[in-house]
Design brief:
The protein has helices at residues 5-23, 28-47. With 48 residues, it is mostly helical.
């Protein structure tokens, strides 16, 4: 079963917040760490 529109919008909001957190970092290393964390979360979501 897929997501409802509301669930999908909520998921997108979480992604946007994660990207905003990465944007707010001062160093390249901190930005890359946030992106790596987001990537790991997305990969875990795909696995179920």
């Amino acid at each position: 079963m897929g997501m409802t529109d509301l669930q999908f919008k909520s998921y997108l909001k979480q992604l946007i917040r994660a990207l905003e957190a990465a944007e707010s970092k001062d160093t390249k290393e901190a930005i890359l760490a946030e992106i790596a964390k987001l990537r790991q979360d997305l990969e875990e979501d795909l696995k179920g």
